[in-house]
Amino acid sequence: MSGAGDTSGAGREGSDPRDVREPWSRPDLASLTPDRMMAYIRARCPWAMDHTHRTLAPYLLEESAELLAAIVEDEHVGSDGGSADAAGTGTADAVEAELADVLYQVVFHAALLDERRGAEPGATWSSLQQRLVDKYVRRHPHVFDSSSPVPIADVQRRYQDVKTAERAEEGAAREPSAAAHAEAADEALSILADIRGTIGAKNRQN
Question: In which residue ranges is the amino acid composition biased (Basic and acidic residues) (predicted)?
């Protein structure tokens, strides 16, 4: 990766924003996808530059918890028959906003993987989208690989078969570092407990 003073990539369309810090110029927002925007943020924002997967973890957990809270509130409004009124629209908008916050974290973590791998900005984001498509197809053969409707019992059975195969594959891949994964899981639970306490305190204040 080029240093902060390297301007060889400046002005080239599609150049790596991580290599374009000087001369400083405004990027064309209309042409930037979320992954490209995050590459600029990582290159130009001092706060974002300092973050790692580990330091971002509390934000991901907090945003996920806030998303769940917004979903619960939206479902409560809908159950009261208010989903079509202003309150219902407001809670639906809140869910959408929290989804965007979670997605922000996903794009951020993807950018970190790009840098770790020495990949072009957006490479991991593209890979994530392909993984998502693959998972859709793998878990829904009754939708994408069936010539007729499939009974719900068969759908559930096939889904469990797919999940079992996925767990076996993931377990084999992670077996050499099982202790490290266990330690990471414990740390994540500790962070989540802290976030729950913070959210609980906020709710009591309200």
Answer: 13-25
